[in-house]
């Protein structure tokens, strides 16, 4: 199948290895991947700051670049959720609707669309799983502890297919890391305290890495880890699923 790859701007600029790992993983699994060269920011930073009216240019550009594909995949739950909830074009409403229905976060695409049941991957480390809020609560990638429903996790389902890996969760497995987009700028002290709480619980499990489906959450945690001199590293789930250690 042909898949259009959407790489969020912060991954493009700061974590290009995540984009490369996503591309290689999809190709290993038999997808014909194309990368629309005119793509840019989805508009989420403006919307998070209360200026959703300024995202019209981003919407127009996204529709121009991603129209006509059966599937669009991105290694970022937050950007996918933003587009699913806010992408619009008054002149082309049918195109916007088609794109929303074709857009998937990476782990949701692997589990729900191509239904991966085995992976040729190996990562012999102890890894703590962070449930990113947008993916868990917006895209339903994992169950929520406050709901009396059967437990599930699409990222964990995939990670369990990786050879040599040992998985763990923090005590409060679906608590926010504190990043929250522009929240971490406007409410810096609260954001950092939330991140420190997450890291403290992961440290109690004596892990080597923290993984998640959003590089933005990992970037926030990585900064706190680096400032305290922690040996724990962060790694996007795409990099683990594509790993051959």
TrEMBL record:
Domain Cysteine-rich: 3-84, 127-221
Cited InterPro entries: Cys_rich_dom (IPR004017)
Organism for this UniProt entry: Flavobacterium hydrocarbonoxydans
Name listed for the protein in its UniProt record: (Fe-S)-binding protein
GO MF annotations in UniProt: oxidoreductase activity
Signal peptide boundaries: none
Domain of life: Bacteria
Gene Ontology CC: one annotated term: cytosol
């Amino acid at each position: 199948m042909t898949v259009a790859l959407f790489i969020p701007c912060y991954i493009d600029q700061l974590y290009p290895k995540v984009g490369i790992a996503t591309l290689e993983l999809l190709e290993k699994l038999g997808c014909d991947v194309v990368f629309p060269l005119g793509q840019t920011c989805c508009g989420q930073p403006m919307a998070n700051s209360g200026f959703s009216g300024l995202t019209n240019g981003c919407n127009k550009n996204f529709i121009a670049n991603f129209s006509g594909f059966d599937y669009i995949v991105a290694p970022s739950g937050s950007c996918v959720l933003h587009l699913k909830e806010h992408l619009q074009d008054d002149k082309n409403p049918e195109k916007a609707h088609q794109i929303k229905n074709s857009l998937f976060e990476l782990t949701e695409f692997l589990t729900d669309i191509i239904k991966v049941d085995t992976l040729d991957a190996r990562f012999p480390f102890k890894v703590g799983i962070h449930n990113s809020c947008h993916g868990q609560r917006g895209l339903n990638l994992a169950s929520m502890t406050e709901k009396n429903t059967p437990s599930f996790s699409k990222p964990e389902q995939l990670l369990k297919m990786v050879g040599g890996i040992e998985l763990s969760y923090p005590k409060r497995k679906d608590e926010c890391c504190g990043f929250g987009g522009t929240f971490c700028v406007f409410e810096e002290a609260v954001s950092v305290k939330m991140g420190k709480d997450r890291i403290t619980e992961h440290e109690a499990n004596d892990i080597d890495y923290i993984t998640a489906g959003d590089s933005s959450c990992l970037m926030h945690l990585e900064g706190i880890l680096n400032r305290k001199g922690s040996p724990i590293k962060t790694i996007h789930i795409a990099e683990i699923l594509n790993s051959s250690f």
